[in-house]
Amino acid sequence: MSVTPNRRVEPESRPTVRDVVRGVVTDVAPEELPLVAGLQGIDHETAVRRLRRMTSRKEPLGFGLEEITALVTAVVWIALDEALKGAVGAAVETARQRMVKRTRAILGRRDPDPSIPPLTREQLAVVHARVRESAVKLGISEKRAAQIADSLITRLALEPPKGEEE
């Protein structure tokens, strides 16, 4: 595999937040896969809001999955959302992006899931620390929190662009 320096990676070729969450949950908390499937029908922002609300107030997500303790899904999805906003935060939303977003809303189409851009070592370290901290706050053991964070960082660092999977 050759690496081309300064090669621009198109967002469509990068894994989405949902893709990475599903992969991490499959690896470390397969019992939460029904929750990930339940979140499939809603857009990214709504999923983040529901997961934040659930973790802050210990509320069910509202679509019949109350019995699932969705700690891993919530921790990973929220951490990725924060990392994505931090990585893209410097970019200002253009008028075209706002117009496309409004048009999609009028037509009743949900926004596509955000793709995760390649992250620097420093950004990966911040995401790792955030996942561990959030998991421990929710009552997950230090060892399990490290396992979740390690799985996420491995996926982020090694995830091939879409279309290049083995």
How would you describe this structure to a colleague?
- The chain is mostly helical.
- The protein has one domain.
- Helix 3 crosses helix 4.
- The longest helix has 18 residues.
- It is globular and about 45 Å long.
- The N terminus is likely disordered.
Assembly of the depicted chains: single chain
> Count the strands?
0
Tell me the number of structural domains.
Answer: 1
Q: Please state roughly what percent of the residues sit in beta strands, choosing from under 5%, 5-15%, 15-25%, 25-35%, 35-45% or over 45%.
A: under 5%
Gyration radius over CA: 16 Å
Order of helices and strands: HHHHHHH
Distance between the termini: 13 Å
Q: What is the number of helices?
A: 7
Q: In terms of structural class, how would the helical and strand content be classed?
A: mainly alpha
Which stretches are low in confidence, meaning pLDDT under 50 for 5 or more residues running? Answer: 1-9, 59-68
Q: State the major sheet.
A: none
Helix content: 55-70%
> On the 0-100 scale, what is the average pLDDT?
77
Q: Judging from the principal axes of the Cα atoms, what is the shape?
A: globular
